[in-house]
Design goal:
With 924 residues, the protein is of the alpha+beta class. It has five domains: 323 residues, Alpha-Beta Barrel (TIM Barrel); 142 residues, 3-Layer(aba) Sandwich (Rossmann fold); 110 residues, Trefoil (Acidic Fibroblast Growth Factor, subunit A) (Trefoil), CATH 2.80.10; 114 residues, Immunoglobulin-like; 118 residues, Sandwich (Jelly Rolls). It contains 17 helices and 47 strands. The strands form eleven sheets. Strands 13, 14, 15, 16, 17, 18, 19 and 24 form an eight-stranded antiparallel beta sheet that branches. Strands 1-2-3-4-6-9 form a six-stranded mixed beta sheet. The chain starts with 11 loop residues before the first helix and ends with a strand.
């Protein structure tokens, strides 16, 4: 007779409980690593978390490659994204059935970090700067991944990365400063829908700290994430993040302490040391022996892990997905879906009537990206590649120009030459073979260049310390094929290897090798023997239309571990765009990138953008350019005119810094939601009704042009009066409509009034204020066609009287949010003399004293002022005692005679002071 845990007829909780009771403590500990040990006596097999599936199955060989996640979101089509998720889940299963150990069914996707700053190196992995839209798209993709069979998961989707993670610079040691409103209104909402609807069954914390505490130890895992989840939620660590708790972050002194804290905070699976689990398990055993963990803590974590395995059907006699075979991998249906997804993701940024192309016989396809498709770090392996050149060549006569400079590099001892077998580069080399001394120079922007040897068609790379020419292009986790150029005297330059920081020098045998000392760098004279810009202009002039395909390299222009410093298109590519447009006014700029770009030629008549579009990119591009399909994509991020319009990369307070489309007050290059059509649309008859707990809006949209078209009708609201700073606009819904010429349709928004709430720091909850609102409908966040006012009856936030948590202030200057204790809470630390926080509308009636709970390594002084941080009358002054970190003292001071409601400024007279709370009371 089978054990009860193998009986699908029993309730899931009973089955999990039965297996849990049968496991020994040692066996349970073995389930807490990414590579879970088998329990052979019970017939429980090995299990591994973590298969990458961000936009198709990745890292395991050729599989269908769909557009990058940013591109999928740009379709504004949740059903399409769900179908991509379904196809990806099928291919994960196919690989799993062939190799269960190599392809696990716990997939690490989707990424739901809101795209707060486009300079983030991993921008292409996310969906949108809007948390609500991110939630919609993420839920759709996760729903596809987890499948439609009741009770049984196809795969187990994992949301990444919790929490406030939008930078790579020092990502393991920096802390994201996230005030309560930003946390509750911006960061958390992106995670909630997929978790709450049960389609994301796991979450991965991020590498960074949040408000001074490592994200892997966040109390929000238990307090928020698991409160949302309808079932057990698995929490897996990011790779090697547990070790950071003592090493890079120094948050705990020993790994048993750190790992025990992680388990208690909610981590169920340690992704540490790859498949070498012994050290991690030893640290957990030590934590148990020292009393830092109880068996109940282990049981709780193991239950979460086992829940996922049961829901995947591992212990069932059969599942609906057992018959999925490798015939689904890159099958015709998935190829068609990849083409559809790529086509619907294109965004038409500008068009003076040049598009769609008509009467075109000869097209010049120009640019570094014109005849190549690039994989990103989380791509699958392309099974085939339909490039822009290939796709357009199927429609008309094409001529191709890569538009890169061909150069020679000459040292004092002679030219740099390539080895015909792909071996070391050297100075000198065979005479009479000019080809071996020629290189094509690729400018990927941000000062990053790559060199391709003309003689071999292979890129220059660092093999150890030796320069060779044997690579197909920039590739790998540590890209070793890119260089910076540093000026040297007499017009020469030195090459600096980006990955290592070393310089290119010449060894005694003439071979180019990397050297540490800049003084040992070889000085090279670069001569352009063929101008890519001039070649591109000639090709454009001889064609009916020029299509310049420009953009980024996903492994070079920002990626995991590396942010961008600029949004500008690479200078050499930018120059090609200008030269081509000057040679042929009928020029289309096709941008392909994982983030917003800027370029200098404002006269380009048509600009089309997409994220890197996967294997069917070229077919999709041709269909859009020639008008087989209307451009359906819309931007899910603001395209700024320059990175100068952005706050500091580490400034996560979008409210204070006026960041994202929600608060940005400038005029962007292209607004959130922007995207043109080949036809025109008219909006009319906007009706808004507030009935009970719901706001309903309806608008009539008509295709007034001569062609069928697709419109994304976008609804935004703005609260016009409030106690707090409100967004200028917030996306509340959208409807994608397909209309024939002259056809009309009604687009409808149904919005619960509760969704108009914001986080009230005075009472620690969401609140809907009584206030007028404006509903705006249109084609983008700033292209508003109609608007209407409506009133909402809610609350009036009363004055606050205390106690006041320091972290719940209204505004601030020169302070940082830090962890109040190692396990919970936030406090405020001053970063400079005169730093301050303000509490608006504090009722001091009857208050005669104030108690400040504070501390600091050097002690200090706090002053409470009324009305102004510099000139307001001082109401109380507190000496702050010297304390250890996470230690505080309650200091009482008399309060100057005052009554009524006032704005209170808490002024820190010196830096390094930490305040947790203020209490006002009567009496001595």
């Amino acid at each position: 007779m089978h054990e009860p845990f193998r009986d699908p007829a029993l309730p899931l909780s009973d089955r999990i409980g039965d297996l849990l009771r049968r496991l020994t403590l040692e066996e349970k500990v073995g389930l807490l690593h990414q590579y879970q040990a088998p329990v052979e006596r019970l017939g429980v097999g090995a299990f591994r978390t973590g298969t990458e599936a961000l936009h198709g199955l990745a890292w395991l060989g050729p599989a269908t490659v769909f557009p990058q996640a940013l591109g999928l979101a740009s379709s504004w089509d949740a059903d399409l994204v769900r179908r991509v998720g379904e196809a990806t889940g099928d291919e994960v299963l196919a690989f799993h059935h062939k190799d269960p150990a190599g392809a696990g069914r716990n997939v690490w996707a989707p990424v739901v970090n809101p795209l707060r700053d486009p300079r983030w190196g991993r921008n292409e992995e996310g969906y949108s700067e809007d948390p609500w839209l991110t939630g919609v798209i993420a839920t759709a993709y996760a729903r596809g991944l987890c499948g439609s069979a009741p009770e049984i998961l196809k795969t187990a989707p994992t949301l990444k990365h919790f929490l406030a993670y939008n930078h790579e610079t020092d990502r393991c040691t920096t802390s994201s400063n996230v005030p309560p409103r930003v946390l509750r209104e911006y960061e958390l909402p992106a995670f909630r829908p997929a978790v709450e609807q049960g389609v994301a069954v796991a979450v991965m914390p991020s590498y960074n700290l949040v408000n001074g505490r490592p994200a892997h130890l966040s109390p929000l895992i238990e307090q928020v994430l698991r409160a949302w989840a309808p079932d057990d939620l698995l929490v897996v660590s990011d790779a090697y993040a547990p070790g950071n708790l003592t090493a890079l972050q120094g948050y705990h002194d020993t790994l048993p302490e750190a790992y025990a804290h992680a388990v208690r905070a909610g981590i169920d699976s340690f992704t540490q040391d790859d498949d070498r689990s012994q050290d991690t398990l030893d640290h957990l055993r030590a934590a148990l022996e020292r009393g830092l963990l109880a068996e109940a803590d282990i049981d709780r974590a193991v239950r979460h892990t086992l829940s996922i395995r049961f829901r995947l059907g591992e212990f069932d006699p059969a599942t609906p997905y057992d018959d999925v075979t490798d015939s689904v991998v890159n099958c015709p249906e998935h190829q068609a879906l990849a083409r559809e997804a790529a086509r619907r993701a294109f965004v038409l940024l500008r068009n003076d009537g040049l598009l769609p192309l008509t009467g075109v016989r000869r097209v010049a396809v120009i640019g570094q990206l014109g005849d190549t498709l690039l994989e990103d770090w989380y791509s699958g392996t392309l099974p085939y590649a339909v490039t822009a050149r290939t796709g357009l060549a199927e429609r008309c006569e094409t001529v191709f120009c890569e538009a890169v400079d061909r150069v020679t590099l000459t040292a004092e001892a002679g030219p740099v030459t390539a080895d015909l077998a792909g071996g070391p580069l050297s100075v000198g080399g065979p005479s009479g073979q000019a080809a071996v001394s020629a290189f094509d120079l690729f400018d990927w922007g941000g000062g990053a260049y790559a060199l391709r040897a003309v003689a071999t068609g292979r890129f220059v790379s660092a093999d150890g310390l030796t320069l060779v020419n044997d690579q197909p292009g920039p590739n790998g986790w540590e890209v070793r094929q890119t260089f910076r150029m540093e000026e040297r005297p007499r017009g020469t330059l030195a090459l600096r290897h980006i990955a290592t920081g070393c310089y290119v020098g010449v060894a005694d045998d003439g071979v180019l090798r990397l050297v540490d000392d800049a003084d040992q760098a070889v000085w090279l004279a670069m001569e352009v023997i063929r101008s890519g810009t001039e070649q591109a202009a000639r090709a454009a002039a001889a064609a009916d239309v020029a299509v310049v395909v420009a953009g980024d390299h996903p492994l070079v222009n920002g990626r995991e571990t590396e942010d961008r410093m600029t949004l500008a298109l690479a200078p050499a590519q930018d120059a090609v765009v200008a030269a081509v447009r000057a040679a042929n006014p009928r020029t289309v700029l096709v941008l392909t990138s994982g983030y917003p770009l800027t370029w200098t030629d404002d006269a380009v008549p048509a600009v089309l953008w997409s994220a890197h579009g996967g294997q069917e990119y070229g077919h999709a591009l041709a269909e859009v350019l020639f008008g087989d399909a209307d451009p359906e994509g819309r931007l899910t991020q603001t395209w700024y005119r320059s990175e100068q319009e952005l706050p500091d990369l580490l400034d996560y307070d979008i409210i204070a810094s006026d960041a994202t489309y929600l608060y940005f007050r400038g005029v962007p290059l292209h607004p959130f939601g922007h995207g043109l059509s080949y036809t025109t649309f008219e909006y009319a008859n906007l009706r808004v009704h507030v009935t009970g707990d719901s706001v309903t809006a309806e608008v009539t949209v008509t295709n007034t042009g001569p062609r069928p078209g697709v419109e994304v009708v976008q609804f935004y609201t703005h609260q016009q009066r409030s106690r707090v700073k409100q967004p200028l606009r917030r996306l509340r819904g959208f409807e994608k409509v397909r209309l024939a010429p002259g056809e009309s349709r009604t687009a409808t928004l149904r919005l619960p009034v509760a969704e108009l709430a914001f986080w009230d720091v005075t009472r620690g909850r969401f609140v809907v204020e009584s206030a007028p609102h404006r509903l705006m409908v249109g084609r983008s966040a700033t292209d508003v066609r109609l608007s209407a006012r409506f009133e909402v009856v809610g609350e009036t936030i009363p004055p606050q009287s205390g106690p006041l948590r320091a972290a719940d202030h209204d505004e601030y200057d020169a302070v940082t949010l830090v962890d109040e204790t190692r396990t919970d809470g936030e406090a405020v630390r001053s970063d400079a003399e005169g730093a301050w926080i303000v509490f608006r509308q504090v009722d001091l009636t009857g208050s005669t004293r104030c108690v400040a709970t504070a501390g600091g390594a050097e002690g200090g002084m706090i002053t409470i002022r009324r009305g102004d941080p510099l000139y307001g009358p001082a109401l109380a002054t507190f000496p702050v005692p010297r304390t250890d970190r996470h230690a505080y003292h309650a200091v009482t001071a008399p309060l100057a005679a005052v009554t009524g409601v006032h704005d209170l400024y808490v002024v820190f007279e010196n830096d390094g002071v930490t305040l947790t709370r203020l209490d006002f009371g009567a009496g001595a």
